[in-house]
Amino acid sequence: MSATPPATLGPDATIGILGGGQLGRMLALAAARLGLKCHVLCPDPLSSAFDVVRRVTEADYSDHAALDRFAADVDVITYEFENVPAETALFLAARKPVLPDPGVLATTQDRLAEKAFVTGLDIGTAGFVAIAASGDLAAALDVVGRPAVLKTRRFGYDGKGQVTIRDGVDPLAAWNAIGGQPAILEAFVPFEREISVIAARERGGAVACFDVTENEHRDHILKTSRAPAAISPAIADEAERIATRIADAFDYVGVLAVEMFVAKDGAGHALLVNEIAPRVHNSGHWTIDAASVSQFEQHIRAIAGWPLARPIRRGRVTMTNLLGAEIETYRAALDEPGTAVHLYGKAGVREGRKMGHVTRVLPER
Ligand code: AMP
């Protein structure tokens, strides 16, 4: 538990953000629109969020003196990435309210704990088995079958730390490829599509979901998100119910994203939760240009103790990430009708790095 937040923050309050990537940057821009100030703490001197905030602290997450000064300067603290070290979150939570509560991190930083949490709520996931050592693999493969996906329990993102074990793949090679760390072995889901729900929950417990988004990944990295997803209203309702149940179970405050697979199940469909992100999420970027309120503003409102907005989508929308060298294509989108271009101001272009995104909005059919 963290320090008790004040009932509501005034518009002159300062929000502390851990992490200086594009998510922190877009959170800060949304806060600024509401008159709130932001202070970003990040070890990277070239942090994209540093360009748009009132104060920055360039320091390691273990630098207690810097954390102390940061906490003293802000009214509430939030984070833009889920791998905030537990020790950092606890240190800060003893000084200022940290929202969402750091307890959420312990679950979402560990794929095994996360899967156990989700299945404990009676929500479906891919079949999985915990792998503590390479000797566990053979029996686990017998349970989940091939293909299977071996994923590190911790620090996996954008496909890092995961290997698919198909027919003919040596499980030991897969184990070595993920660095021989504690892992889970998941059944491979032959999904029809991937979707996500971006849900916001306010302190009083009210939840507002954005319309369900459909996501396409390329090399495990999100490439395109579309809203609304091409799913039936019944599946969309079920997806929102699942996200709401998860947010309620955490007594969550802020925005969270729940990624799900839509898989064929007999004559119908099943929803299987793949991952929970306790933060604003790439698949919600479309909300900046194509909804009456963005995921970033919803998060700021929730942690500031303000009421959530009830978002309305403004059309059919596609968000395309500009990854690595694709950033150079942004100029072509600048004068396309119905198109918004977002550049994150990052200095170094690396393959797969999220450099910006383009949102295209079309009228509802
Ligand atoms: P993750 O890091 O767990 O979000 O996985 C990244 C991407 O890999 C997902 O968005 C899917 O496209 C794919 N993936 C992960 N787990 C599975 C699975 N069990 N079955 C099929 N595809 C998967």
Write the layout of secondary structure elements.
Blueprint: E1 14-18, H1 22-33, E2 37-42, E3 55-58, H2 64-73, E4 76-79, H3 86-93, H4 103-108, H5 111-120, E5 128-131, H6 137-144, E6 148-152, E7 162-165, H7 171-177, E8 183-187, E9 193-201, E10 207-209, E11 213-218, E12 221-227, H8 233-250, E13 254-265, E14 268-277, H9 286-290, H10 295-303, E15 316-323, H11 330-333, E16 339-343, E17 354-362
Parallel strand pairs: 1-2, 1-4, 2-3
Antiparallel strand pairs: 5-8, 6-7, 6-8, 9-10, 9-11, 9-13, 11-12, 12-15, 13-14, 15-17, 16-17
Bound molecules: adenosine monophosphate (AMP).
Q: How would you describe what is shown here?
A:
Strands 9, 10, 11, 12, 13, 14, 15, 16 and 17 form a 9-stranded antiparallel sheet that branches. A 4-stranded parallel sheet has the order 3-2-1-4, sandwiched between helices. Strands 5-8-6-7 form a 4-stranded antiparallel sheet, sandwiched between helices. With about 375 residues, it is α+β, with helices and mostly antiparallel strands. The longest helix is centred in the middle third of the chain and has 18 residues, at about 235-250. Helices cover about 25% and strands about 30% of the residues. It is built from 11 helices and 17 strands. It has 3 domains: about 15-100, Rossmann fold; about 125-185, 2-Layer Sandwich (Dna Ligase, domain 1), CATH 3.30.1490.20; about 195-360, D-amino Acid Aminotransferase, Chain A, domain 1 (2-Layer Sandwich). Helix 1 (about 20-35) packs across helix 10. Strand 1, helix 1 (about 20-35) and strand 2 form a beta-alpha-beta unit. The model has no long low-confidence stretch (mean pLDDT about 95). Bound molecules: adenosine monophosphate. Adenosine monophosphate (AMP) binds next to strand 14.
